[in-house]
Write a structure and sequence with these properties.
The protein has helices at 12-35, 37-68, 71-84, 87-93, 95-99, 101-104, 110-115, 117-120, 128-159, 162-190, 203-226, 232-235, 238-269, 272-275, 278-281, 286-304, 308-311, 314-336, 348-369, 382-387, 395-399. By secondary structure, it is an all-alpha fold. It has one domain (9-99, 135-399). It is globular and about 65 Å long. The two termini are 32 Å apart. The relative contact order is 0.18.
Length: 402
């Protein structure tokens, strides 16, 4: 039983290829950072948040699946669990942000604080020591929850004890609440405080939706790769891919709704302390990036994902998932880069660092994925998931990627 549904052997190529590529790109960027440290730290923040969104999205979706059930979660759980287990790596990779706070955040400069009463009023929260303490707390909390989610999932594989499923549900219910609270504070620290005068009460929700979308895009892209190999091509059906496409569509809509709600409320209020975030992003070329996000992060995927024909073909939905993952990077770029550059600007490090950090993430993800069978062997929904949507008209076309 424990050897059932093994991970494809060539999953190791993620480690063999992604790790050296990631290290080379990181080393090259560090060398570039010697000559342009401010650019390095801003590009590093961009790349770090982009990859961390996938990690935390996997973390949240594991808990959502334990609470809601669903065939999609059974076939994707091990991939999502491997994603969330990279949290300790992401904690280490976040250290350069702590080292570069002086380059990233204006509120770290005493002369700026002394001359600005709004920032001065926020120093109880925005200060070096408390920022680092919060950073440590976020990753300790997330990693502890992820540890028990994985531990009990493995115990369920070994024993089949139904009580473990109830433990996972209880942990996931409380864990999602904790995740929502801590994530809101985390993105306030890392992204919102780039513009210390600005605040938004919906900002954390925008990131939650974006992280869910990032994790689904990543998972669908991996499923596309695995569909060319056993055992995945034997049990993924057209209906399962349609479910994945529907969930991706739901997160596209949620992200758009939250983002537009934030913009609409700030536009209607027209208050100086609120519009300070949007005004620079609608000037000097940055409006082009915002327009691209509107068109290709919402309209194009929205209308494409309405089609069952597209959602039912793994190659098509996989291509769209990779396309959307690219626009998740553009979304973070649009949030981070204008804090440094008045005019539209793209540095080679804005591309190299996300790929470098992503290479280390992929290698670590593949290492964790190899540790367990590809499916949760004694999950109560496993048999239902394996037979879901399998009939003569569905399985063959999907496996062929048509």
């Amino acid at each position: 039983m424990l050897n059932a549904y093994p991970v494809p052997p060539d999953i190791r190529q993620f480690t063999r290829r992604a790790l050296p590529i990631g290290l080379v790109l990181l080393i090259a960027s560090i060398i570039g950072g010697v000559f342009s440290p401010d650019q390095f730290y801003h590009s590093y923040l961009l790349g770090y948040i982009f990859v961390l969104n996938i990690t935390l999205g996997c973390f949240a979706l594991v808990m959502v699946q334990h609470l809601s059930g669903g065939n999609w979660g059974v076939v994707a759980r091990r991939m999502l669990e491997a994603g969330m287990l990279t949290l300790p790596l992401m904690a280490v990779l976040g250290i350069p942000i702590l080292l570069g706070m002086g380059s990233l955040y204006s509120w770290t400069h005493p002369d700026v604080v002394a001359a600005d009463h709004i920032i001065r009023d926020k120093t109880l929260y925005l200060n070096y020591t408390f920022f680092i303490v919060r950073y440590i707390c976020y990753f300790v909390i997330w990693s502890v929850i992820a540890f028990f989610l994985r531990k009990w999932s493995i115990e369920q594989d070994a024993t089949g004890d139904p009580a473990i499923g109830r433990k996972l549900q209880r942990l996931s219910g409380g864990g999602l609440v904790v995740y929502g609270i801590t994530l809101t504070f985390a993105v306030t620290d890392w992204i919102m405080s780039l513009v210390p005068h600005w605040f938004s009460t919906i900002f954390g929700m925008i990131f939650m939706c974006g992280q869910g979308l990032s994790a689904f895009c990543f998972t669908i892209a991996i499923i596309w790769w695995m569909m060319q190999r056993e055992p995945f091509k034997s049990f993924i059906s057209r209906k399962q891919m349609i479910d994945f496409g529907n969930l991706m569509l739901a997160f596209v809509i949620l992200w758009t709704y939250m983002s537009f709600s934030q913009f609409l409320l700030i536009w209607a209020g027209n208050l100086p302390e609120e519009i300070v975030f949007y005004v620079p992003r609608f000037e000097h070329g940055w409006a082009i990036v915002g327009t691209l996000l509107l068109l290709f992060h919402f309209f194009v995927p929205f209308f494409l994902l309405l089609s069952r024909d597209i959602k039912g073909k793994v190659a098509r939905v996989g291509t769209l998932a990779i396309f959307l993952e690219g626009f998740r990077w553009i979304d973070i770029y649009w949030m981070v880069a204008p804090a440094q550059h008045t005019n539209l600007h793209l540095s080679w490090m804005d591309i190299a660092l996300p790929l470098g950090i992503g290479g280390l993430f992929l290698a670590n993800w593949a290492w964790f994925l190899e540790k367990q069978p590809l499916l949760p062997l004694r999950d109560p929904l496993l048999n239902q998931a394996l037979t879901y949507g399998h009939h003569p008209a569905s399985g063959g076309d999907l496996a062929a990627g048509n």
